[in-house]
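A quick aside before the break. I want you to see a complete sequence-to-structure record at least once, exactly as it would be stored in a machine-readable document. Don't worry about memorizing anything.
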Amino acid sequence: MDFGDILDEWDRQTARPQGKKKKASKNVPAPPKRDAPEEPEPKKTGEPKRVHPLTAWLRIHEVYDKDAEAQDEQAAAGERRRRLLHKKPDAVIDLHGLNQNESWIALEAFFQEGRMQGFEKLLIIHGKGNHSSGEAVLKQTVKKFIERCPFAGESGHGNSASGGTGATWVLLKKSGK
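That is the input. The structure line, written in tokens, reads:
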């Protein structure tokens, strides 16, 4: 079998049922398909069905799509986030009347307990600082604590019914991360 016969065989195997058939150049073979090739039809003579080697290899080695798996994980994380944003807090702490050091200690204990209990969302009531001279001390303390806490995730202020800017909600990170 010479190179011309190989090209003719290639043309027969990749022939299109509709439209004009492209002529393959005798010098340049057609580019290979990117996906796993389809299995050819078995011949009528009773020969067993032939499987393309790439298809056989993929079946034997149980290849999985890690990109699809990552997309599924991202979708699940997005769904969890949406659910938690609309969820009521699992626990609430009120820091009114505490100084900066006392509130830091109370927050450490509150977050540790929340994590041990498996809570997902916490609410911290710190007040707006209307009676403070200058900036709201407890609000800044809560912000610093959340930034430094290794298992505090996303945070924000709720609507006016849940305290507005005088309260901060925090989503706790999952235990595995």
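Two observations worth writing down. The longest strand covers residues 152-157. The first helix runs from residue 3 to 13. We'll return to this after the break.
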